[in-house]
Amino acid sequence: MPASIQLSECSYGKTGVRLVKVERHGARHEMKDLRVEIQFFGAFDAAYSEGDNRLILPTDTMKNTVYVLAGQAAIGEIEYFGMRLANHFLERNAQLAKVRISIVEKLWQAIGCNGRPQDSFRLLGSELRTAVVEDNRSETSIRAGVADLAVLKTSRSAFANFLRDEYTTLRETQDRLLSSNVSAQWSYKSLGQDAATTWQAVRCVLLDVFAAHESRSVQHTLYAMGRAVLDRFACIDEIKLSMPNRHCQLVDLSPFKMENPNEVFVPIDEPSGLIEAVLQRCASE
Amino acid sequence: MPASIQLSECSYGKTGVRLVKVERHGARHEMKDLRVEIQFFGAFDAAYSEGDNRLILPTDTMKNTVYVLAGQAAIGEIEYFGMRLANHFLERNAQLAKVRISIVEKLWQAIGCNGRPQDSFRLLGSELRTAVVEDNRSETSIRAGVADLAVLKTSRSAFANFLRDEYTTLRETQDRLLSSNVSAQWSYKSLGQDAATTWQAVRCVLLDVFAAHESRSVQHTLYAMGRAVLDRFACIDEIKLSMPNRHCQLVDLSPFKMENPNEVFVPIDEPSGLIEAVLQRCASE
Amino acid sequence: MPASIQLSECSYGKTGVRLVKVERHGARHEMKDLRVEIQFFGAFDAAYSEGDNRLILPTDTMKNTVYVLAGQAAIGEIEYFGMRLANHFLERNAQLAKVRISIVEKLWQAIGCNGRPQDSFRLLGSELRTAVVEDNRSETSIRAGVADLAVLKTSRSAFANFLRDEYTTLRETQDRLLSSNVSAQWSYKSLGQDAATTWQAVRCVLLDVFAAHESRSVQHTLYAMGRAVLDRFACIDEIKLSMPNRHCQLVDLSPFKMENPNEVFVPIDEPSGLIEAVLQRCASE
Amino acid sequence: MPASIQLSECSYGKTGVRLVKVERHGARHEMKDLRVEIQFFGAFDAAYSEGDNRLILPTDTMKNTVYVLAGQAAIGEIEYFGMRLANHFLERNAQLAKVRISIVEKLWQAIGCNGRPQDSFRLLGSELRTAVVEDNRSETSIRAGVADLAVLKTSRSAFANFLRDEYTTLRETQDRLLSSNVSAQWSYKSLGQDAATTWQAVRCVLLDVFAAHESRSVQHTLYAMGRAVLDRFACIDEIKLSMPNRHCQLVDLSPFKMENPNEVFVPIDEPSGLIEAVLQRCASE
User: Of the four, B1, C219, C253, D41, which is 20 to 30 A from C274 by CA?
Assistant: First the structure.
């Protein structure tokens, strides 16, 4: 009998659901700027193999639901909005085994207003706040994060005593530029009503450790950043960090009879290093 | 005793190693245009936790190695080049548990030359050929693929009889535009010397089934495409397909007293559907 | 008396009006995929200085108009569609001094269909066809073009005998890689009903001359390409070419005791050269 | 006699010259992150038409020169660095009629350091500072600017009393969201040693007027912003503003029996309005 074919994984959903919500408290406005992604997992095999759509809620309905829930109440922090969306879909869709809600928030700041209405904003930066909520009916995981947090150190960054082989030409250095676009995602063991405060505090720890660290490598600094978050936040039990090493090459000015005492660099986008790790809190023994 | 912290996953490597190789056979030249990524997995904990770099081969050396291997012999198909790189790193680095090589190839075509030297090329399209080789010393997995293969059907694409809830406003349709940027990655049970021929043949099957299919949904067409690949290629035992549904909305011309008999559409980038699945060949029973 | 302030230039319009038009001839379909930009020039000063919108046709109406005209008749070639749009706006808007319509077309190709309906397409490449129509009521200029035409020569490309100063380190070469993303825009002295044929023919000449040329520099090749177009197409009286020089650096393999006989290169995106020129046909004397 | 062909415009140069300069004052470091473009204009016809490179300074030398000048002295403000580069090239290259230096600066901020060395930075935002210096040997023009300054108003933004035609469906509004990515470039009649202070002050005026304005249209707000700059800075005699109107569409929640009192919006990237103007100071009469 011939081998047959099975659907070993499947999912479908909507990506890029963009949403600006304005919340007006008299002359003081607040705004949120989100991009939401919804992904459904479950027993949809007949939709794939037979074209039977009876268990397929349209992705257009997912999109509508985002706007409906945004209209029904204040968005609040994105971790909570993700949970509301996940609950909504699971409660009404018995066919779902799991739902994943991913939200990316652009951060805006009110423009100083000197007594004027507070109704004007500027984009705060290129960095993004993220949240991923995954619910499989028995467990809810909540990961908060930051993406594209661009940082650079101009000293106290070394890379030496590394492994060498016949194709190694890199020189050891005690003093290189270290530039990265940090992405971090941390998992909450428990999350209370303070998602905003915690997010701000974690972001500050990440920046602060990056700035304070006497770095022997990107790996070393990444670990110190993750460790500090786990050390200081009992509510977090895991953190994933991803730190590209965006190289800045020292320019060789010797053809022009000039020295370059670690001052003039060419930042390059490609190639770049890519350093990743997950740090976990172990159960106490 | 307090909880301690462990590194549950870690990896590092180089991304964006770009390479153009010209192979000259008299007046007939061939060229390859690749972007290579190398990722190392293994017991590097001390590098992270202690800043001990003694087991860290620099990512700069990974980059050099790509150029050395490219210079030593013809590149050949990217699946083989990925295997050469994976072998090279595993043989010389006992500290590695696993290595992953990911290669993306841009496709160029010789410009018709009427007896001239064949030394001029144009980029064939926006689609990319991909290969991922993963070797953990006991198993080598080879996945070939295509990315960003933009396709569009102007008829024989329906979406009806789907699940509805109170937030569903989508109308059933027998005749919508179906536009996608197909990504597919297939795993070879065995791969002989015909990686190029097989890649071309799989790509043709994907396009051909997309064009021929009487689609009831993106899920339905995705499955048909994957199934056809498994049916026709005994050397492939798994295929992952990812097909965004890039919506084309029918423009409402009724305010202008005009009909729009399925002719004028607005393609939109966001939001989009995202449909994914993995199809596997089951062991014969 | 104090200096006052004037509006020395102003314009407004709509950009990114995307449009897919399907034209159905029985089982044989055709499709166009356009992005249209409309820009109005004229005496709108009061809109700027006073907030008086009485002469401001909304950009939303410009967008609607694109869809209406697309629905009324076959799109045809983009040069003609641009002229229809320009005429439409000028005829109905006495306040306009000039209108500019810019259209970018993505190129799709029918997937081979073996007797099936011809209703499925794949994107042909990353290159784009462009048209810009400008009408100031006394003159209509029509520029057709191509953008992002990626080409690469692997021999017969030199750069030598150039000017040197104390900061010049570049070596002379008789044999470098020459890689560019050609953009060209040519102006029609007169344009008949053959915009499609002419566009194809000009594109072929550009590619053919690029491939055939014994290049002494990008400037030299750019000129040869433009000159050939003016020589062969009496209906064209001007062509602008823009050719970045996307450097491919020869990799230095000498640290590894290897030669690199012009085979292994690193293509880099930044920095790049940028070479531009406009060639015109002079009036005969 | 047949028509001949002339080169009516030509230029060449280097784009994407990236530079990070670190200036170390003991434990307090400063950094600049620039992308420089150099463009040469002059009588290079023989390079194009004959492949005669004798008057062509390689673009590679332009790049080297940027690094040499960056190494010789503090960069200072980008307007001054642009002037140094322009002077350098004009003085040494008699063949040049004009040179244009364009610089884009990414803005970084020191991470708060509590007594630590100030050697760590984070990218301040997505907005960019720009400068363009053009020198044709008889005149030097200096334009400073800001690009990608993303702003949004949640009230006091109307669009009404506009021109309507048969294809107008837009409703009048007294209260829409107004979102834009402002680009502004202003020309200095004279520029002293205070380029940094002036740039900061102009940027503040632009933000402040955007926030304070009772907007009747993007045109109206753009004009108010430009006018305020000319009113307050006697050293500036012209300003060009470019403001896309990045539409935020009110979501229709009526199918779900909900109101949407100007709260839930979909921001869209395409299509967008594009409003531009140049304001000039007239000579006093």
Answer: C253
Range of the domain at D232: 148-280
Sign for the CA dihedral angle at B65, B70, B71, B73 comes to positive
Given an 8 Å threshold on Cβ–Cβ distance, is A270 in contact with C270? Answer: no
Chain A residues lying within 8 Å of D108, measured CB to CB: 152
Query: Quick one: closest CA in D to C12, which residue?
Result: D275
Q: Do C22 and B262 touch (CB under 8 A)?
A: yes
Catalytic residue among B29, B59, B140, B220: B59
pTM as predicted? 0.96
C267 vs B contacts (CB less than 8 Å):
18-20, 33
* Residue A67: both structure tokens together: 């706007």
Domain boundary (A95, A113, A136) is at A136
HSE, CB side, 13 Å, CA atoms: give it for residue D143.
21
Quick check: is B247 catalytic?
Answer: yes
The CATH number covering residue C87 comes to: 3.10.270.10
Dmax over Cα atoms in chain A, in whole Å?
A: 80
Which residues in chain C have Cβ-Cβ distances shorter than 8 Å to D231? 5
- The beta-carbon neighbor of B282 closest among A5, A160, A170 is A5
- The nearest alpha carbon in chain A to C256 belongs to A167
State pLDDT tens for residues C257-282.
999 999 999 999 999 999 999 999 98
Tokens of D285: 């009469």
Q: Does one domain contain both A124 and A163? A: no
| Secondary structure (3-state) at D58 | coil
Looking at beta carbons, which residues of chain B come within 8 Å of D252? Answer: none
Q: Do B75 and B196 reside in the same domain of the chain?
A: no
Preferred mutation among D120, D174, D246, D263 to probe A, highest tally of A CBs within 10 A: D120
Cβ of C56 within 8 Å of Cβ of D244? The answer is no
Q: Which of D59, D61, D140, D154 is catalytic?
A: D59
Rg (C-alpha) for chain B, rounded Å, is: 24
Please give the Cα distance from C111 to B152 (Å, whole number): 10
D169 contacts in B (CB within 8 Å)?
A: 255
CA distance B108 to chain C (A): 9
pLDDT in tens, C189-213: 989 899 999 999 999 999 999 999 9
CA distance A135 to chain B (A): 19
Please say if B14 is a catalytic residue: yes
| Domain assignment of residue C6, yes or no | no
Please compute, for residue A56, the number of CA atoms within 13 A of its CA located in the half-sphere on the CB side: 30
The answer as to whether A16 is a domain residue is yes
pLDDT beneath 50: ranges in chain C: 1, 285
How far is residue B237's CA from residue A109's CA, in Å, rounded to a whole number?
A: 52
Residue C6 to residue D279, Cβ atoms within 8 A: yes
- What phi, psi does C73 have (nearest 5°)? -160, 170
Q: Residue C1: its pLDDT value, please?
A: 37
Chain C: closest CA distance from residue D45 (Å): 9
- A14 flagged as catalytic: yes
Please tell me the distance from the alpha carbon of residue C261 to that of residue C118, in angstroms, as a whole number: 48
Rounded to the nearest 5 degrees, what angle is found at the Cα of C217, between the Cα atoms of D100 and D37? 20
Contact D48 C277 (CB under 8 A): yes
Residues A29 and A122 grouped into a single domain: yes
Domain count, chain B: 2
Token pair belonging to B36:
């290579």
Q: A251: which 2 tokens?
A: 């320019």
Measured torsion, CA atoms of residues D127, D129, D135, D139, in degrees rounded to the nearest 10: 110
Residues B83 and B46 in one domain: yes
Do B131 and B181 lie in one domain? The reply is: no
Return the ∠ at Cα B8 (arms to B3 and B11), rounded to 5°: 145
Specify whether A190 is located in the same domain as A275: yes
Which helix or strand (DSSP H or E) is residue A57 part of?
none
Tell whether D51 and D117 lie within a shared domain: yes
Given B92, B110, B138, the domain boundary residue is B138
pLDDT for B49 equals 96
